[in-house]
Amino acid sequence: MDDYAPGSGLLIGTREEGERVARHLRHHRVQLLRSHGCNIVAETLPRVVASAIYLNINATIQWQTLLLGKEPKYLSPQEAKPGGDIALFQDSAMRRFWGHWSARVRYAMPDMK
């Protein structure tokens, strides 16, 4: 978002600032926050988790590419859409991912119920 007021302390302190964030997230799944992390939205908790996991993986790959002094070869929106539609929107794929991630959490944290 390019319309952020730098003097506001990087917090959402007014209704207008909250509405600006909501407007952005209406059309985007992720909003990067400078020096602060990100906001992620989705229709379900598994899709939020999937977005967070893939955001981390993709950011790591991009960062490592830049560390090597190379320019990442980004996918165009048209190239990325088919894979995203399957990974993030197809119910059968999401059930598989969610089962895998849930099993990993149960294994890593046996006290969780």
Helical fraction equals 55-70%
Alpha carbon gap, first and last residue:
39 Å
Q: Strand share of the residues? A: 5-15%
How would the global form be characterised? globular
| Rg, Cα atoms, Å | 17 Å
Total of helices: 4
Protein described:
- The structure is a single chain.
- The chain has helices at residues 15-27, 45-67, 77-89, 91-108, and strands at 30-33, 37-40.
- The protein is built from 4 helices and 2 strands.
- The chain has a two-stranded antiparallel sheet.
- The protein has 2 domains: 1-41, no CATH class; 43-113, no CATH class.
- The model has no long low-confidence stretch (mean pLDDT 86).
- By secondary structure, it is mostly helical.
- The longest helix has 23 residues, at 45-67.
